[in-house]
Amino acid sequence: MNIHEYQAKAILREYGAPVSEGRAVLKADEAKTAAGELDGPLWVVKAQIHAGGRGKGHFVEESAGEKGGVRLAKSVEEAEAEAKKMLGKTLVTHQTGPAGKQVNRIYIEAGSDIERELYLALLVDRVTSSVSVVCSTEGGMDIEEVAASTPEKILSFSIDPATGYAPFHGRKVAFALGLKGAAMKQCVKLIGDLYRAFMDKDMEQLEINPLIVMPDGNLKVLDAKVGFDGNAVYRHADIAALRDETEEDAKELAASKYDLNYIALDGEIGCMVNGAGLAMATMDIIKLYGAEPANFLDVGGGATKEKVTEAFKIITSDKNVKGILVNIFGGIMRCDVIAEGVIAAVKEVGLEVPLVVRLEGTNVDQGKEIIASSGLNVIAADNLSDGAEKIVKAVKG
């Protein structure tokens, strides 16, 4: 689960991180009042979407050469004008894809003087089962670009979860970033504060890019990107309340409400499979036969007729889907339950694209009989290869 920059900064402020004063704006007529509550002489107006690269992005509605989603204003009136230019518009960045994302929130904060820009992040390291700290002197840039061009400028190390954070971890970061004096002491405290927030809130990503050194030698968190472990959000009602459903894919959101593992893709063949491994294999074999999967969808081992029905409705709601492949190997999941769910869904939403069904395993004969006696135009498949070949042929001719 991701949250907006202004929400991330509010959390970090609670843990003692140095963050500028700012105001979130949802309506254009609130912008002037919000900016007026902050000290000038410089204001920063930031589009709030769940994607990076906002400063380098562009708005679909504006002409070429216009400024991106992070803009400077030298007066309250200018801040208001910039906010009005952004709200309700579509911002395209390298992370949103060409479709972009609509800006429904603006964050206005007090400007800061910058002497140096640094990079800092805490991430879950699955290899070491610990929290990794990543830092670089090359702040303000995409860390992927730094890793590709100057990897020697990146320091990464893990914090042992058994012992947790210790001041030497903070000093290690400070030395790598070339910090001295007050900035070094602040860095030691900051890493400790961030680690505590990371663990307390079940974060899986905490990225500060940039962390700045100001002319007076003090540190400040200028930008923040925070993501949480979706499986742990139930433990944090305050975090769950920050969820912005308008930033999420409608199909993925609907799937989450029915405990379905769904990820939207760009292809034309919808997939309904039980088991993550089998779902991956199904996607691979669709590509092998010359087509692209439209989604990853694992209905799980204990899916009910209602879940299967909802899964089918989610697939058919994707306008890019030109055909559907149902691939079920019944172990815990029974083939007859899948068949009943598919039939119920087709009767409810209709079937306007080719449908290939491959069933094998528990109650397979009952499942096939349910499909065969339904009177629906369903193409039966004997195995996975046969199913993939048939659906690709049905879609592409």
UniProtKB/TrEMBL annotation:
ATP binds at residues 46, 53-55, 109, 112, 117. The keyword Ligase applies. It catalyses: (S)-malate + ATP + CoA = (S)-malyl-CoA + ADP + phosphate; succinate + ATP + CoA = succinyl-CoA + ADP + phosphate; GTP + succinate + CoA = succinyl-CoA + GDP + phosphate. Pathway: One-carbon metabolism; formaldehyde assimilation via serine pathway; Carbohydrate metabolism; tricarboxylic acid cycle; succinate from succinyl-CoA (ligase route): step 1/1. SUPFAM superfamilies: Glutathione synthetase ATP-binding domain-like (SSF56059), Succinyl-CoA synthetase domains (SSF52210). Signal peptide: none annotated. Pfam families: ATP-grasp_2, Ligase_CoA. One of its GO terms (molecular function) is malate-CoA ligase activity. Keywords: ATP-binding, Ligase, Magnesium, Metal-binding, Nucleotide-binding, Tricarboxylic acid cycle. GO terms for cellular component: cytosol; succinate-CoA ligase complex. GO terms for biological process: succinyl-CoA metabolic process; tricarboxylic acid cycle. Mg(2+) binds at residues 209, 223. Binds 1 Mg(2+) ion per subunit. Belongs to the succinate/malate CoA ligase beta subunit family. Heterotetramer of two alpha and two beta subunits. This is Succinate--CoA ligase [ADP-forming] subunit beta.
